[in-house]
From TrEMBL:
Annotated compartments: Cell membrane
Organism expressing this protein natively: Comamonas denitrificans
Predominant localisation class: membrane
InterPro entries, alphabetized: MetI-like, MetI-like_sf, OppC_N
Transmembrane segments: 40-58, 160-186, 207-232, 283-304, 324-346
Topology in the lipid bilayer: Multi-pass membrane protein
Listed PANTHER family: INNER MEMBRANE ABC TRANSPORTER PERMEASE PROTEIN YEJE, MEMBRANE COMPONENT OF ABC TRANSPORTER
Domain (ABC transmembrane type-1): residue spans on this chain: 158-346
One GO BP annotation of this record: microcin transport
Designated name of the protein: ABC transporter permease
Protein family according to the UniProt entry: Belongs to the binding-protein-dependent transport system permease family.
Matching CDD domains: TM_PBP2
């Protein structure tokens, strides 16, 4: 019996034969996985997002679990008055208070804290250094000008930025695909009317509208999401429109029409799956633009409500406190790392979905 040599190099014809029966999505994923930089960027970005989801378990001023005088308490999920742990007041317990910490360490009592013992809005009133304080054993990355822990601010601020970008990208994709599909499929007067509408709408001063609405309405993440979504779909709609204009002339679309398939079914089941390449490639770059937009607006004071962890606000603090180098350096590092990961992912997706490289 002949045994083939496993180290023998396969010819291009043999490699092509092994791809028979493999779906286009599977082949695209293989090409994406072959890009080590893009693959590791995807895993690292997903790991950062998952860590930010569990931010309360990583950075929090409340204990995860407390055993006091034989009873178990869960301060992370429930507020307890100071009198519960031997204090004198009915106010919520400050677990950074030296007296409370002493109470939780004696007579068999114990408390399980998060690795970083500061939350998003925690101010340590018992700090020994003025704010902003440099990195120390108590605050690993220092504190900002308000006395908040920088590590907690970066962790929670990244979560706000990442999920805002995901939401803005999702809304932009839905609106962009819908507008581009209608223009490209129907063409003619419909396409002409949409194009003129997009030109008029795109000439609106977006920043001025943000300033006006920020002055009239209370700032909120929802307001930002709505305002930015009104303008964030136009770039993608042009790509989808071009794909639909090209694909609607192909034979499989003409055959579907001849068989009496409805326009909605042709768009949804036939043309759209073959027009998703620019949409998928667009996603990481759209997320990068959303994070930059939120950071820029927060830097200008037009973004999230006061008190919300924000990378843009930290950059503004760094500008106002040049001597506090740890504020600008750590915030800039998180922002650059996030944008680099998204850029590498976008480049890998673009190469994986490029038909010219797929045939190479």
């Amino acid at each position: 019996m002949l045994v083939s040599n496993s180290t023998e190099t396969l010819t291009p014809q043999a490699l092509a034969a092994t791809e028979i029966g493999v779906s286009p999505a599977r082949r695209a994923w293989r090409r994406f996985a072959d890009n080590r930089l893009g693959r590791w960027s995807l895993w690292l970005f997903l790991a950062l997002v998952l860590l930010s989801l569990g931010a309360e378990l990583i950075s929090n001023d409340r204990p995860l679990l407390v055993r006091y005088q034989g009873q178990l308490y869960t301060p992370l999920w429930q507020d307890y008055p100071e009198t519960t742990f031997g204090g004198d007041f009915e106010t919520p317990t400050d677990y950074l208070d030296p007296f409370i910490q002493q109470q939780l360490q004696q007579n068999g009592n114990w408390a399980l804290f998060a690795p970083n013992r500061y939350g998003a809005d925690t101010i340590n009133y018992f700090a020994t250094q003025p704010n902003p304080a440099p990195p120390s054993r108590a605050n690993w990355l220092g504190t900002d000008e308000r006395g908040r822990d920088m590590l907690a601010q970066l962790l929670y601020g990244f979560r706000v930025s990442a999920w805002f970008a995901l939401a803005l990208t999702a809304v932009g994709v839905v609106l962009g695909v819908l507008a581009g599909a209608v223009q490209g499929f129907f063409g003619g007067k419909t396409d002409l009317a949409f194009q003129r509408l997009i030109e008029i709408w795109g000439s609106m001063p977006e920043l001025y509208l943000l300033i006006i609405f920020s002055a009239v309405l209370a700032p909120s993440i929802g307001l930002l999401l709505v305002l930015l979504s009104l303008f964030g779909w136009m770039g993608l709609s042009d790509y989808v429109r071009a794909e639909f204009l090209r694909n609607r002339q192909l034979d499989y679309v003409k055959a579907a029409r001849a068989l009496g398939v409805s326009n909605g079914a042709i768009i949804w089941r036939h043309i759209l799956p073959n027009s998703l390449t620019p949409v998928v490639t667009f996603l990481p770059f759209r997320m990068s633009a959303a994070i930059l937009a939120l950071t820029s607006l927060d830097f200008l004071g037009l973004g999230v409500p006061p008190g919300t962890p924000s990378l843009g606000e930290l950059l503004a603090q760094g500008k106002n406190n040049v001597d506090a180098w740890w504020i600008s350096l750590s915030t800039f590092g998180v922002l650059v790392l996030t944008l680099l990961l998204l850029t590498f992912m976008g480049d890998a997706l673009r190469d994986a979905l490029d038909p010219r490289k797929a045939q190479a």
